[in-house]
Amino acid sequence: MTEFFDQLIETLQNEALRRPGMNASQATLNELFSERKQTVPRELPAVHAAASAAPRAPEPMPGSSPAAPAAQEPTPRRQLVPGTLEHLAETVRHCRNCPLCETRLNAVPGEGNPHARLMFIGEGPGADEDRQGRPFVGAAGQLLDKMILAMQFRREEVYIANIVKCRPPRNRAPMPEEAAACIGYLEHQIRMIKPEVIVLLGATAAHFLLKREEGIMRLRGRWLEYDGIPVMPTFHPAFLLRQESAKREAWEDLKQVMRRLGIPVPAPGRTAR
Ligand code: SF4
């Protein structure tokens, strides 16, 4: 049994204990588990993977005679092919299109299988993601990993990205102008990956990708569409960490996604691969 299921069952049991008259039997629990502004050019500029990584020569010590220039190995440069996710990621790492570049430690382009059937899109990087340059690696990311496993996928089989690629200070939501400056990268990613289903994590992602104004309580669990691709909005894992009781609804949303992808929904108690 996955930890996600464990947490889900524990949440329901606690909820049942708080509600007089609610049957918390295992059977009951099992039953329950049964025109956008384009600011990024369509053709991204050519970049070299090692363009900014050339080692600098050390400064000479005061009073010392200038050292003969050391023979330097030419820095190997890997030409990235325009139109690939790797090329886009390198472009993002050098991007200075909005003020978030001033406060980031690392841009977080996104990661995963370039041919993923399933894509998860969140709001933006947090502190852990900013430090590591990778999406969803903090506590919320660990919960997302469990959700992915519960859906019979491995993390490396899906693709994970965000609306903005650099961390908004103090984890605030992205400003409209920041999202407008960055959304073109995500649009490129979606066009390249062509996922069969997109899962939007939280209302902010739905707001900026789909221009929906409703809160996540109204949006979640309903099939929407982006550029012909079915989209399922659900709760952000960070919200689920604060609101454990919402995990049951999140799991219902994820089960809809599994059915859409033709993946059997595991019965509670079964081991996910
Ligand atoms: S958030 Fe997006 S647009 Fe802004 S600097 Fe980072 S990559 Fe560029």
- CATH second-level architecture: 3-Layer(aba) Sandwich
The helix count comes to 10
Number of domains: 1
Total number of beta strands: 6
Task: Fill in the CATH topology.
Answer: Uracil-DNA Glycosylase, subunit E
Whole-Å distance between the termini?
Answer: 10 Å
The fraction of residues assigned to DSSP E strands is 5-15%
Please state how the strands of the largest beta sheet are arranged side by side: 1-3-2-4-6-5
Based on helices, strands and strand pairing, what is the structural class? alpha/beta
How would the blueprint of this fold be written?
Blueprint: H1 3-18, H2 26-33, H3 85-93, E1 111-112, E2 118-122, H4 127-132, H5 139-150, E3 159-162, H6 176-193, E4 197-201, H7 203-210, H8 216-219, E5 224-226, E6 229-234, H9 237-242, H10 247-260
Parallel strand pairs: 2-3, 2-4, 4-6
Antiparallel strand pairs: 1-3, 5-6
How would you describe what is shown here?
The chain has 273 residues and is of the alpha/beta class. It has a single domain (36-44, 78-260), classed as 3-Layer(aba) Sandwich (Uracil-DNA Glycosylase, subunit E). The protein is built from 10 helices and 6 strands, in the order αααββααβαβααββαα. It has a 6-stranded mixed β-sheet, with helices on both faces. The structure holds iron/sulfur cluster. Iron/sulfur cluster binds at residues 92, 95-98, 100-101, 107, 164-166, 178, 181-182.
Summarize the structure.
The protein has 273 residues and is α/β, with parallel strands linked by helices.
